[in-house]
Task: inverse folding
């Protein structure tokens, strides 16, 4: 399980989606939240996904294939402030269209920076995933930046806003640098993608 990881393709518009149909895990969330770092840390790879200290790095829908069994789809981050309004809107529209048209999504991981907390964009994304009936979980990232009590507060705040979340089930914490939460997330992914 999770032994083979390949970069497949960078997609810039919806006409370029891969022809191969496989179940997909979608990574979504705001820019700089740690989507690309998650891919590398999950599989102990240094540069499977490109990361930069400059946010807004991922400017395409990036497809990775795991064990020839499912895709991980790294979406561009929503709302990166330093690109033009037009570009932000282009990507927001593309992501929304993509989520609405892709029929093979088995799970969406909605990443939220534990230190930044929830923003309006997270509320919108949560509503969109709900409307599209896409199974999702919230992953509180960069949890290494908070101490124990800060972590608990971050979890509480998210649960108060999104009342259907159960910590340890569809609300998980994660640190790409420390490896916190990796086991739990992999367990979840194995139950969704390897159960058939
Ligand atoms: P976009 O491609 O812009 O949407 O960003 P992204 O969501 O892919 O974020 P990325 O993985 O590129 O990480 C953004 C920054 O956060 C980088 O500087 C990472 O090193 C840092 N980062 C990611 N995960 C963690 C984490 O778990 N802990 C800490 N401390 N930093 C992290
Ligand atoms: Mg990225």
Result:
């Amino acid at each position: 399980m999770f032994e083979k990881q390949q970069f497949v393709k960078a997609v810039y518009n919806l006409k370029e989606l891969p022809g191969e149909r496989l179940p997909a895990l979608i990574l979504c969330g705001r820019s700089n939240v740690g989507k690309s770092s998650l891919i590398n840390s999950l599989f102990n790879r240094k540069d499977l996904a490109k990361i930069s200290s400059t946010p807004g790095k991922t400017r395409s829908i990036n497809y990775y294939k795991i064990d020839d069994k499912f895709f991980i789809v790294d979406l561009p981050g929503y709302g990166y402030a330093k690109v033009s309004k037009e570009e932000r809107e282009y990507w927001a529209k593309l992501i929304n269209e993509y989520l609405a048209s892709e029929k093979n999504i088995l799970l969406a991981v909605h990443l939220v920076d534990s230190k930044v907390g929830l923003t309006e964009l997270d509320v919108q994304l949560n509503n969109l995933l709900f409307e599209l009936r896409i199974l999702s979980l919230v992953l509180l990232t960069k949890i290494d930046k908070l101490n124990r009590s800060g972590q608990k507060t971050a979890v509480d705040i998210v649960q108060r806003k999104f009342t259907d979340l159960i910590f340890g089930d569809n609300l998980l914490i994660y640190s790409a640098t420390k490896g916190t939460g990796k086991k739990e997330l992999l367990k979840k992914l194995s139950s969704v993608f390897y159960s058939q």
Summary: The longest strand covers residues 105-113. The chain is about 30% helix and 20% strand. The helical segments are 35-42, 85-101, 120-131, 148-161, 182-193. The pocket of magnesium ion (ligand 2) is lined by residues 35-36, 57-58, 74 (CB under 6 Å).
